[in-house]
Amino acid sequence: MASIGTGYDLSVTTFSPDGRVFQIEYAGKAVDNSGTVVGIKCKDGIILGVEKLIASKMMLPGSNRRIHSVHRHSGMVC
C-alpha cells in the first residue's frame, strides 16, 4: 500500500487501515540511514560529534560557512 497521498502519513497519531503508523516507520528508516552521533552537555553549551562528514559533490568548497573540516575524518558545524 502506497502511503503518498493517502493522508495516513501526515501525523504520528494516525493509523492506516492496516494498523501502520507511517511517521514511526519513517523515523526508523532515518535512524537506519544515519551515522553515530555523540552529544556532550557542558556548562556553556553542548558538543556534538558525528561519525563522518558527508560533503555533497555539488557543494563548492567554502560555500557553506557553517560546515568546517577539522581533519580528514572529522568535521565541525557552527
From TrEMBL:
Proteasome alpha-type subunits domain: residues covered: 8-30
Main location per the UniProt record: cytoplasm
Compartment(s) of residence: Cytoplasm; Nucleus
Function statement: The proteasome is a multicatalytic proteinase complex which is characterized by its ability to cleave peptides with Arg, Phe, Tyr, Leu, and Glu adjacent to the leaving group at neutral or slightly basic pH.
Alphabetical list of Pfam families matching this protein: Proteasome (PF00227), Proteasome_A_N (PF10584)
Keyword terms of this UniProt record: Cytoplasm, Nucleus, Proteasome
CC per GO annotation: cytoplasm; nucleus; proteasome core complex, alpha-subunit complex
Subunit structure: The 20S proteasome core is composed of 28 subunits that are arranged in four stacked rings, resulting in a barrel-shaped structure. The two end rings are each formed by seven alpha subunits, and the two central rings are each formed by seven beta subunits.
Name assigned to this protein: Proteasome subunit alpha type
Alphabetized InterPro entries for the sequence: Ntn_hydrolases_N, Proteasome_alpha, Proteasome_asu_N, Proteasome_sua/b
Gene3D superfamilies tied to this protein: Glutamine Phosphoribosylpyrophosphate, subunit 1, domain 1
Annotated family: Belongs to the peptidase T1A family.
BP-aspect Gene Ontology terms: ubiquitin-dependent protein catabolic process
